[in-house]
Design brief:
Length: 317
């Protein structure tokens, strides 16, 4: 008798083929509602959670008596009730293979903000360039500036490596000080307050937890330099959205680059969409052809390990 695997939204075909060799796979065409998910997992052995919008809560987990593993197609697991899964003896795993790809997006946002690339592109496509102006769209240098990284995990480390190549001064904050990495990369540990006050570019790359939810609010935004930029490639709720809009409107900071939001998709009437000093991308930091394949294959392999009675490589502890 084959296993049953439920997938909450489409994944790369390489991962899908791995699962289909040993299991009957039911894949939703788009993220399901809670009731749809409960019905689907009622007789499932494994659940692959493709995105971060599915609500894999206690009720869902307890409606699946045969479930052995919940595999995340990524590194964030804030939409999975890990405590409930642990109570049931269900593995929860991640796929930590997107670090370099997400770090690329963080730097893409940083460079685009610094060089005002989006504004210049829109200007050109509006056919407004009629005079050569040496002062138009003046940006700021990246090299020699201070970058502050909030969360020096795998993604934060990859961001620091890129910053080193751009000859930036690198500071970081984390719940755990990492002296070996400080020495290896030539970076400095700072408190959050020190980092906010000193950095020219601040990148958020920490996990969303109860401790980090709302970490950056009005008080923290006012600590930043008026010339500084805030970039978030982690999770939207780490930043107080209303406070950020106020900070951008009132020019407490120079600008922001966001790939994640308090609600996804972002409501179409959200006032942040009207602001000029922010760059927005629809949670695409991990969306490359190569990485989507890596994520799908890694999640599928974790599921198969557990179904074969083995321990997964990337469990949440």
């Amino acid at each position: 008798m084959k296993y049953k695997v439920v997938i909450t939204a489409p994944i790369n075909e390489d991962g899908l083929k791995l699962l289909e060799k040993e299991a009957d796979v039911f894949m939703f065409p788009k993220p399901p509602t809670e009731e749809e998910l409960k019905r689907a997992v009622a007789d499932a052995d494994a659940l692959l959670v493709t995105m971060n919008v599915e609500n894999v809560n206690r009720d869902v987990i307890y409606s699946a008596p045969k479930l052995k593993i919940i595999a995340r197609h990524g590194v964030g697991y804030d939409n999975v009730d890990v405590k409930a899964a642990s109570e049931r003896g269900i593995w929860v795993t991640t796929a930590p293979v997107l670090n370099e790809t997400v770090a690329d997006q963080a730097f893409a946002l940083l460079l685009t903000l610094a060089k005002r690339t989006c504004e210049a592109n829109n200007f050109m496509k509006s056919k407004k360039w009629t005079v050569r102006d040496p002062f138009i769209f003046q940006g700021v240098d990246v090299w020699g500036k201070t970058i502050g990284i909030i969360g020096l995990g795998r993604i934060g480390y990859a961001i620091a490596e890129r910053a080193k190549g751009f000859k930036m001064k690198i500071v970081y904050t984390d719940i755990v000080r990492k002296r070996e990495l400080e020495e290896k990369l030539g970076i400095e540990y700072k408190t959050l307050e020190e980092l906010l006050k000193e950095s020219d570019f601040i990148i958020i790359s920490c996990s969303l937890t109860e401790q980090t939810r709302g970490l950056i609010g009005e008080k923290e935004l006012k600590m930043m330099k008026k010339t500084a930029y805030l970039i978030n490639v982690a999770r939207g709720p780490i930043v107080d959205h209303k406070a950020l809009i106020k900070a951008l409107k009132e020019k407490w900071i120079a600008g922001a680059g966001l790939d994640v939001f308090y609600k996804e998709p972002l409501p179409l009437d959200d006032p942040i969409l009207e602001l000029e000093n922010v760059i927005l991308t629809p949670h695409i930091a991990s969306n490359t052809i190569e990485n989507r394949k890596r994520l799908a294959v890694t999640a599928a392999q974790e599921i198969l390990r557990v179904l074969h009675g083995e321990q997964p490589l990337y469990p949440i502890k």
